[in-house]
Target: Ig-like domain-containing protein
Amino acid sequence: MEDLNLTSIFWVAVVVSLMHTVSTTPQCNSDSNLEGMTVEGELLNCTCGSPDAANSTFSWPGYSSGPTLLVPNVRREQNGTHYTCLNQTEGMDNETAVYTLQVAYGPSDNDTVIEGPSSFTSDGTKDLTLTCTAKNVNPSPVYAWPNVNMCANATNKCTFKPSLTDNGREVFCTATNTVLVKTGTAIYKMNIVISTTPQCNSDSNLEGMTVEGELLNCTCGSPDAANSTFSWPGYSSGPTLLVPNVRREQNGTIYTCLNQTEGMDNETAVYTLQVAYGPSDNDTVIEGPSSFATDGTKNLTLTCTAKNVNPSPVYAWPNVNMCANATNKCTFKPSLIDHDKEVFCYATNTVLRKTGTAIYKTNIGMIPAPPVNSDNQGDGLNGKVVAFVVFACIVLAAVCVVFVITFVGKSRHAS
Ligand SMILES: *[C@@H]1O[C@H](CO)[C@@H](O)[C@H](O)[C@H]1NC(C)=O
Ligand SMILES: *[C@@H]1O[C@H](CO)[C@@H](O)[C@H](O)[C@H]1NC(C)=O
Ligand SMILES: *[C@@H]1O[C@H](CO)[C@@H](O)[C@H](O)[C@H]1NC(C)=O
Ligand SMILES: *[C@@H]1O[C@H](CO)[C@@H](O)[C@H](O)[C@H]1NC(C)=O
Ligand SMILES: *[C@@H]1O[C@H](CO)[C@@H](O)[C@H](O)[C@H]1NC(C)=O
Ligand SMILES: *[C@@H]1O[C@H](CO)[C@@H](O)[C@H](O)[C@H]1NC(C)=O
Ligand SMILES: *[C@@H]1O[C@H](CO)[C@@H](O)[C@H](O)[C@H]1NC(C)=O
Ligand SMILES: *[C@@H]1O[C@H](CO)[C@@H](O)[C@H](O)[C@H]1NC(C)=O
Ligand SMILES: *[C@@H]1O[C@H](CO)[C@@H](O)[C@H](O)[C@H]1NC(C)=O
Ligand SMILES: *[C@@H]1O[C@H](CO)[C@@H](O)[C@H](O)[C@H]1NC(C)=O
Ligand SMILES: *[C@@H]1O[C@H](CO)[C@@H](O)[C@H](O)[C@H]1NC(C)=O
Ligand SMILES: *[C@@H]1O[C@H](CO)[C@@H](O)[C@H](O)[C@H]1NC(C)=O
Model:
């Protein structure tokens, strides 16, 4: 135990002394000497110690037996390499100093890319986001979007609103290594598609659905389409369709936009209204047997149904462990202790985040013990036996009545 403690203390002392005696960092340079980095392909030239240190010898174990370390034609793969200089002084502890090589390289045009959609459907109001990424570059580059005004201060993500006239235009991204003053350029060609389907929105704009009671607001065509006129026959003579106070009965209604262009065929585009509504508690029910007899091994199946809801709800059975993953059918094995309990079902409209709750009250009874003589043929036989017994009793009763009358009559005469 004591030896172990002494050994530990010794090693802690060694580590602490090493930490405290790391000497001045080596002096390194390269041809360009850019911000302490070595440009790929150049010579790294490091010197350790000083000429005054007459009593010390300096070396780079593994690389050089003298105070000078030369690494010619530095490659990007060598970035981050640690070179250690050893200071040996007679009668003193060894000292070491570390130099970490940082190589400056890249990016090339080949390593610079813009990611974005292959085509973009625009009505002139929607945002397009492009992401520029340069690989194989050190240190991290600075990004710029020289021909997108809205991205003057952007980083590697540029968000702007293209218009229809931007179709076919090239967007540039530059990734600049500020140490090397070297730039990789990427190009993204915009493929802007004129929106043929009408653009619709409502107050909440939930997953393309209109909440019951809200206003549906659709626009057809685009302001650029100067030679075309747009209308919603039956609803609106202009390009805008407004349907206030949308009702559930209107779900599925198809609205048609008409595009009339002089000297051209008429074109149409349709929008199908989807109304989000329900469910309420009143519209949510659990169907199941009014009573259920079991010995604890039988399955009970309950079915939950929500009506008057769009889109279809997601069902859950919050207080039935066995139905954690159930859909609208929940099957479990109730026991007698489950009698007179309330089983809940939730039907949730995930778009509206609205839930209808249904309750089923269990009525669990014990299965009666099976009858002892329960062969099917016995039914007819038993009937005959019963008839015989009843007949015998009646005959016996009649005999008794006759006997009693006779006996009582005789007694009266006798008294
Ligand atoms: C390394 O650097 C030292 C000090 O700057 C210089 O004297 C020496 O010539 C350099 N060696 C090479 C091979 O460039
Ligand atoms: C080398 O090590 C000795 C002994 O620890 C120390 O006195 C000296 O300053 C060191 N030299 C350099 C250049 O770090
Ligand atoms: C080198 O060592 C000698 C004797 O060991 C001593 O006299 C001298 O002062 C030392 N020089 C330095 C620079 O430490
Ligand atoms: C290059 O090495 C430095 C120092 O270890 C490190 O900070 C940097 O992340 C490395 N660069 C790359 C691109 O690996
Ligand atoms: C210093 O390092 C050298 C080479 O690794 C080794 O041979 C020597 O024993 C070390 N001296 C001390 C005092 O640790
Ligand atoms: C870029 O890629 C092209 C084709 O893949 C290749 O011919 C060219 O040498 C590459 N340029 C650089 C700098 O990597
Ligand atoms: C960019 O930043 C400058 C200074 O903060 C500001 O004046 C300018 O409006 C910004 N440009 C954009 C497009 O955000
Ligand atoms: C309909 O939507 C357009 C475009 O989003 C908007 O400019 C306009 O104000 C909206 N109209 C109504 C009545 O909300
Ligand atoms: C309207 O119809 C014309 C003629 O067919 C067509 O060129 C144009 O693209 C259409 N506009 C829209 C917004 O669909
Ligand atoms: C509109 O029509 C005029 C003449 O018919 C034509 O010169 C012009 O290019 C057309 N504009 C568009 C946007 O189609
Ligand atoms: C609402 O309309 C959509 C689109 O026509 C249809 O898919 C959906 O089944 C309808 N929902 C109801 C509950 O009728
Ligand atoms: C385009 O539709 C309008 C309205 O329904 C109709 O009056 C006109 O004749 C149609 N034009 C063509 C070329 O079909």
In short: Residues 284-366 form a domain with the Immunoglobulin-like fold (CATH 2.60.40.10).
